[in-house]
Amino acid sequence: MSSLLLRNIAQLSTVDAQGTVFHDAAVLIQDGFIVWIGQDAEAPEATEIHDLGGRAVLPGWVDSHTHLIFGGDRAEEFVARMAGESYTAGGIAQTTSATAALSDAELLAAVNARRTEALSMGTTWMETKSGYGLSHAEEVRHVRLIRPVIDQLTFLGAHLVPKGMDAEQYTDLVAGPMLADVIGQVDFVDVFCERGAFDQAQSRRVLAAATRAGLATKVHGNQLGPGPGVQLAVEFSSHSVDHVNYLEPEDLQALASSWSGWERHTRSGLRGVVATCLPACDLSTRQPFAPARALVDAGVEIALASNCNPGTSYTCNMNFVVATAVLQMGLTLPEAIAAATYGGALALGVESQVGSIEIGKRADLQVLDAPSAAHLAYRPGMALTYAVYRAGEHHRGIADRGLEK
Ligand code: NIG
């Protein structure tokens, strides 16, 4: 049986329930799983040893909200926004046309390239959404193509009402024949519940159809203004409500109540609705940051994700997301790291498999070219990912220039 020992770890942030941090640590991996964690001096024998040279190790990022299935970019829209235009979801239609123009091979290559880029920056588990198809045939094509190359897939047929179609008819199409054709291939159904996208009644129809089909749900909610998204997510016991920029006191209360049966310190009990904060998107759309501090203080479990997409957040750099959450949103470094690892796993319902460094979990770890995880926010914008282990398999990070210190 082959085993891999990662040793000479200056700081190991496990992100377990107690937030245990080891110094001078080692981790033993067997068949892609973590089987031992402890002091370097007490490390067991292994068939292969990687000396990490006094670097910091933490769980791989779990990016729980991305839209990787797209063609083209919208740099002009971004430039106009930075010159004062406000974001409306209308640009989605432009991406829909650019995506439809790609062949299967081109679309698959584009998604694979984005997935590889994210891996080189520490992301070991990634969700992505459909939603730039916006026709029956295109949505089904995207789901079929991308299913094999992504960890989890979300059906977001209800992203925007396509031009020339009535909103009610399109909602019926999404909740009926389109959903029927993706069941068995997707993990979640999502709806963009926002002015200009899907209203409360239409969003409810999509979520109800998903629930009837036995699928878990997510909601894009309260991104561009106050709205019913959060309340719908709570009503449907969705795994997460994402964006959450504009929360009324009753929204915060509803999210907090959803976690009232949960023990944060033991991570046990009844789970509620994860609030997924997307700070890179907030910067790129000049929206106020989601109130991450208030959410955590109210007892809500939060996730941090990249929201990588060509309209509102063209980055899959989770180091940047974590640094922004610490520097601008009032989270501590351990809180931000936990939200980008365990929180993401909770938002995806895979917290028993990934999201922390614990015995029995998949060996998804990242190595920073730094002695402590603090460097993520202390040196924002620097390429710090030295190595990534996904299911125990080594990948070079963008900071590995093949040089030893
Ligand atoms: O999560 N909010 C809706 N969907 C994406 C943006 C899509 C786009 O503008 O292309 C988001 O921000």
What features would you describe in this structure?
The protein has 405 residues and is an alpha/beta fold. It is built from 14 helices and 17 strands. It has helices spanning 75-82, 92-100, 104-119, 136-146, 167-182, 200-212, 229-235, 249-258, 279-285, 292-297, 318-328, 333-339, 342-348, 375-378; strands at 3-13, 21-30, 33-39, 48-59, 61-63, 123-129, 152-158, 188-193, 216-221, 240-243, 262-263, 268-269, 274-277, 302-304, 365-368, 385-390, 393-396. The strands form three sheets. The chain has an eight-stranded parallel beta sheet, with helices on both faces. Helix 3 crosses helix 4, helix 4 runs parallel beside helix 5 (167-182) and helix 5 runs parallel beside helix 6 (200-212). The longest helix is centred in the first third of the chain and has 16 residues, at 104-119. It is globular, with a radius of gyration of 21 Å. The protein starts with a strand and ends in a 9-residue tail after the last strand. The model has no long low-confidence stretch (mean pLDDT 97). The structure holds N-(iminomethyl)-L-glutamic acid (NIG). N-(iminomethyl)-L-glutamic acid binds at residues 67, 89, 91-92, 95, 192, 220, 223, 281, 307, 309-312.
Keywords:
405 residues; alpha/beta; eight-stranded parallel beta sheet; seven-stranded mixed beta sheet; 17 strands; globular; binds N-(iminomethyl)-L-glutamic acid
